[in-house]
Write a structure and sequence with these properties.
The complex is a heterodimer of chains A (333) and B (344).
Chain A: H1 13-36, H2 53-61, E1 68-72, H3 76-81, H4 86-93, E2 117-121, H5 127-140, E3 147-152, H6 159-171, E4 175-181, E5 184-185, E6 188-189, H7 190-193, E7 211-214, H8 218-233, E8 239-244, H9 267-273, H10 276-287, H11 292-315
Parallel strand pairs in A: 1-2, 1-3, 3-4, 4-8, 7-8
Antiparallel strand pairs in A: 5-6
Chain B: E1 2-6, H1 7-21, E2 25-29, H2 37-40, H3 45-49, E3 54-55, H4 61-73, E4 77-82, H5 92-99, H6 102-105, E5 115-120, H7 135-140, E6 145-147, H8 152-164, E7 169-174, E8 181-185, E9 197-200, E10 205-209, H9 212-226, E11 231-235, E12 238-240, H10 244-254, E13 257-264, H11 269-280, E14 290-294, H12 303-309, H13 313-323
Parallel strand pairs in B: 2-3, 2-4, 4-5, 5-7, 6-7, 10-11, 10-13, 13-14
Antiparallel strand pairs in B: 1-8, 6-12, 9-11
Helix pairs in contact in B: 1-8, 4-5, 9-13, 10-11
The chains are: A alpha/beta (333), B alpha/beta (344).
Chain lengths: 333, 344
């Protein structure tokens, strides 16, 4: 029941351009990560969102600066889309003192509270209740912000997802649960983990009716998220949005693994056909009359931004050993 | 000014005080607004501060712990209450992967001013799953502060200190302490976190005990005195941060150490304190350190088995005699009788 509305009202040109640029920024940053990775300068696991950029761009495009996002170990895309500092992200991946978590978190624990990207965690589903508590605080503080909880299809196997949704429905919290369905929990397919495959319906018994959308199309994602945000700003309760997507890379690491036995037969072709950047570029070309030169200009500009971030990370100092002991507690014990 | 009151009432005064002075403080957990009010420690709170700030929750320990973290990170001060500490096992991920690591893992940019109150439900046949004492878990993982208030004054002072603290703080309350009466500051005052108390001075041996085991140890020390043995009873009260200096000074003075914990000995608080003595007072030890805790079994229900499961004034006194190389006298050791009756 994918709501692929051909006649849907597409976002205006400025918004569509912004969505495209956000996706390109994510794509180029992650491509750079795969280039750097073999040098062993990034010494920690990385989980890439290539192929899934439309969800981060579309959802964050619908949010205000003061809204909050809690994500997962596959966190680069939402970090960048929410406006997280690119230089500090690369420095974090390099384990440098200038990183967004001073090198303590790495790729799986990105956060930039100044940008509203509040947390990413390496434990599946573990930020869902925290996001719910963030929304509870918002609700107590006059609903001053909308909170987005992002997780994958594997996370709805965890009990804490249901516990959290129940509480959010009970208290009518200003939260959007964003389910990125890329069909795999590591290598385990959705049908190997559950009988009922309409994931957006998973919380119906708790009183939360979800919706499912094509997550490859940034405009669709943006529209769905904007509608959910508008409903919550008007005082509505929680929403659950499922977005389908293709994960181009292996679960963890820089490789592309469409050839592996766990993948569906035609998956690479489908993924390429549904490439969010390709779809958005075609739309911008046709509908907004964007010229090839402008695409090239954006790409050059964003490549420069990524290169500068890498340069910043490379030149930044590592934390000193004294740093090991800092920030376990707010004060030193 | 001080006022005499019970342990539960002392907690209540701290919460009233904190909630009156800081609208960010809220109290939630299963049963916090019911007629029982967590052994009276929350009586009148829901009426005074309303359902926005004092509320019952779904039976979802994991998510509710995460909710507390999310609220704490975003400007509120949650006090999450568990009438049985055993249920915290359901929230292990949120307690230790999330709350304990949040500040560090995100580079010190956010604090988690969260308080978790949990009650040890010992006695009246509570059995294997309603009697556990989880301080060692919390002490093991960096990120949590851990306190076990013994007296009503501790209960008030440490509850306030925990709420004022910018870190996650675990308060473990022993149910058998709720009937204890003591002098408590009025108006309430926060007590320092990380300060141990010498509950009784002595010279022949040091007993380091926590929570309800302090009560048993004091009873033992009273008896030992009648037998010519002078025991010093040290109560750490705060396990993280731990006042090592007070413990080490006492051990260096007496040269003998018995550690009595409300939980199991393996990898526990008693092991940690014994290690501290070995590391920092080895040259003064006249005897190997002794440890007492729950027997290495789950807690049984049957009364004779349950009695054998826990340390008591008698077993503590016996340990002291053994340590001093004296035969245990053929006299009755006073037994502590709890007025506590179940079934809850």
């Amino acid at each position: 029941m994918i709501k692929k509305k051909n006649k849907m009202k597409r976002p205006d040109a400025a918004t569509s351009i912004e969505l495209y640029r956000t996706m390109l920024r994510i794509r180029l940053a992650e491509q750079k990560i795969t280039e750097v990775y073999p040098t062993d300068k990034i010494q920690s696991p990385i989980h890439l969102s290539v192929g899934q950029e439309a969800i981060a761009a579309g959802v964050c495009g619908a949010l205000a600066h003061g809204d909050h996002v809690h994500g997962t170990y596959r966190g680069h895309a939402f970090y960048i889309a929410k406006g997280g500092d690119m230089k500090r992200m690369f420095a974090e991946l390099y384990g440098k003192d200038t990183g967004c978590a001073r090198g303590k978190g790495g790729s799986m624990h990105l956060a930039d509270p100044d940008a509203g990207l509040m947390s990413c965690s390496a434990i599946v589903a573990s930020t869902i209740p925290v996001a719910t508590g963030d929304a509870y605080a918002s609700s107590r503080q006059g609903r001053k912000r909308v909170v987005v909880s992002v997780f994958g299809d594997g996370a709805i196997d965890e009990g804490v997802f249901f516990e959290s949704v129940n509480f959010a429905v009970l208290k009518k919290l200003p939260i959007i649960y964003v389910l990125e369905n890329n069909w795999y929990a590591i290598h385990s397919k959705v049908p190997e983990r559950r009988k009922q495959l309409d994931l957006y319906r998973v919380a119906e018994g708790l009183g939360l009716t979800g919706e499912k959308f094509d997550g490859n199309d940034a405009s669709t994602v943006y529209n769905a998220a904007s509608a959910a945000v508008a409903s919550i700003r008007k005082g509505g309760g929680p929403r659950l949005l499922e977005f389908t997507a293709y994960r181009w890379h292996e679960h963890v690491g820089p490789g592309v693994d469409f050839h592996e036995s766990y993948r569906r037969k035609n998956e690479q072709a489908l993924a390429q056909k549904n490439d969010p950047l390709k779809l958005a570029k075609a739309d911008l070309t046709k509908r907004c009359k964007v010229k090839p030169e402008l695409f090239a200009q954006w790409e050059a500009e964003l490549r420069r931004e990524v290169d500068e971030a890498v340069d910043f990370a490379e030149k930044s100092p590592f934390p000193t050993v004294e740093n090991l002991f800092q920030d376990v507690y707010a004060e030193s014990l | 000014m001080t006022k005499r009151m019970k342990y539960g009432e002392a907690i209540r005064t701290a919460l009233f005080h904190a909630m009156e002075h800081d609208p960010k403080v809220f109290v939630f957990g299963l049963g916090v607004d019911d007629h029982r009010a967590i052994f009276g420690s929350l009586t009148g709170l829901a009426e005074k501060f309303g359902p926005e700030r004092v509320f019952d929750t779904p039976i979802s320990e994991a998510a509710m712990t995460g909710v507390a973290v999310g609220a704490a990170v975003n400007g509120l001060k949650p006090v999450h209450v568990h009438i049985r500490s055993d249920f915290l096992y359901l929230a292990m991920d949120q307690l230790f992967n999330i709350a304990a690591k949040w500040r560090y893992m995100f580079g010190g940019r956010m604090n988690v001013p969260l308080v978790v109150r949990a009650v040890i439900g010992r006695s009246w046949g509570q059995g294997a799953q309603h009697s556990q004492s989880l301080q060692s878990f919390f002490m093991h993982v960096p990120g949590w502060k851990v306190v076990m208030p013994t007296t009503p004054a501790d209960a008030q002072g440490l509850t306030l200190a925990a709420i004022n603290d910018p870190n996650p703080v675990f308060i473990l309350e022993h149910r058998l302490l709720y009937d204890i009466v003591g002098d408590v500051p009025d108006p309430p005052v926060a007590a320092p976190l990380g300060k141990a108390y010498i509950r009784r001075a002595g010279k022949d041996l040091t007993i380091v005990a926590n929570s309800y085991m302090v009560v048993e140890s004091l009873k033992a020390a009273e008896f030992l005195e009648t037998q010519g043995i002078s025991a010093e009873v040290v109560d750490p009260v705060s396990l993280v941060p731990l006042d090592r200096e007070t413990i080490v000074a006492s051990v260096r003075k007496t040269g003998r150490l018995i550690v009595v914990d409300t939980s199991w000995t393996a990898c526990g608080v008693s092991a940690e304190i014994a290690a501290i003595a070995a590391e920092r007072a080895f040259d003064c030890l006249k005897q190997p350190v002794r440890r007492l805790g729950m027997q290495p079994t789950p807690c049984p229900v049957s009364k004779p088995l349950e009695n054998a499961f826990y340390p008591s004034a008698r077993t503590i006194a016996m340990e002291a005699f053994s340590m001093l190389g004296r035969a245990f006298p053929d006299v009755n050791v006073p037994v502590l009788t709890s007025t506590f009756k179940g079934p809850f």
